[in-house]
Specification:
Length: about 120
């Protein structure tokens, strides 16, 4: 089992920035990928950015040029830095972790943190 605890959401003015943090605990030795997804009202959950434990990153086109995802050397905390925030970035942001071990692949989710960008 992996537990994920997110922090860093809140109310931000358009053009501002924020940094989301997600701390993983439990069976982090099997972590393969960590990332952030978001879900706006009435929309499907979508990938924002992900990073593998080897450092390979993947970004949604909508945030690519203004976001940075990083992971600590201990591979248990992932950060998402977002700049030039827009009202359309308003959503609940969920931390995601995937593990891969001999027992199989599993996906874990945090409880989510609200990000609201005011115009």
């Amino acid at each position: 089992q992996v537990q994920l605890v997110e922090s860093g959401g809140g109310l931000v003015q358009a053009g501002g920035s924020l940094r989301l943090s997600c701390v993983a605990s439990g069976r982090i030795d099997s972590l393969s990928i960590m990332g952030w997804y978001r879900q706006a009202p009435g929309k499907q959950r979508e990938l924002v950015a992900s990073i593998s434990v080897s450092g390979r990153t993947n970004y949604a086109d909508s945030v690519k040029v203004r976001s940075t995802i990083s992971i600590t050397n201990a591979k248990n905390t992932v950060y998402l830095q977002m700049l030039s925030l827009k009202p359309e970035d308003t959503a609940v942001y969920y931390c995601n972790a995937e593990t891969n071990s001999r027992s199989g692949k599993y996906v874990y989710w945090g409880q989510g943190t609200q990000v609201t960008v005011s115009s």
